[in-house]
Amino acid sequence: MGVGVCWGYTSVGNIKMRKKKELTENKKKNIFFIVFSSFLLVALLFTNKKENSLHKNSKWTFGKVIDIVPGRNKYIEYQYYVNGNLYEGSDPYNYGWPEHHRTGKPVLNKFYNVEYDSLNPKYAKIFIEKKSYFDYELPEINGIKTKGIIENISSISDNYIDLYIKYKSYNKYFSFRSRFHKDSLPCIDYSKCLDSEIDLMVVEKYPELNDVYFQSYDRTTRRISKLINK
Hints:
Order of helices and strands: HEEEEEEEEEHH
CATH class of the largest domain: Mainly Beta
CATH architecture of the largest domain: Beta Barrel
Radius of gyration: 30 Å
Largest sheet: 5 strands, antiparallel
Strand content: 25-35%
Number of helices: 3
Mean pLDDT: 82
Structural class: alpha+beta
Shape: elongated
Number of domains: 3
Distance between the termini: 99 Å
């Protein structure tokens, strides 16, 4: 008789423990669902607010693709300038929500249109199209006049020389290479090129670019070749 009573108490106790465990697990699931839903709602509201502000205060520039990150959620990293300040952004590789413009495939180190929020320039989208900037035509170079310094010279053949130039724009220093025929050097005399000054016109929308960069023999040749084969 005593054993039966003991077994009865044990069964009731086990049932209560199971119910308590189930209630705890359900409570955890409910808490997780509430937290996740709240996080999702906040993210959607923030994205919607950002989208509305971007469309309301829309301005345009161009940016450069600096990385294409592979994986399940493949995305594009890019950089752009607004009023001389450098910004970096990342967008989905493919078309998705919120709407992203994709009519071509992004190419590393190529330039594309970027729409940004004039009140908050870190809010931006890159527009990937079939053609990137500067493949066929030059940017509108009506920006900032400055002086560059030729820091190094390298003769790559009997006729062509690479000039390595450094300059300052928007309180930042930039360096680039440009290739010239010996008869058309911007410093006139090859023997006097090193450490001499050179006139530059910096692209206002992207101060890493300038007229002498685009005048480089190899870049000009590629651009002409693309125009011919267009």
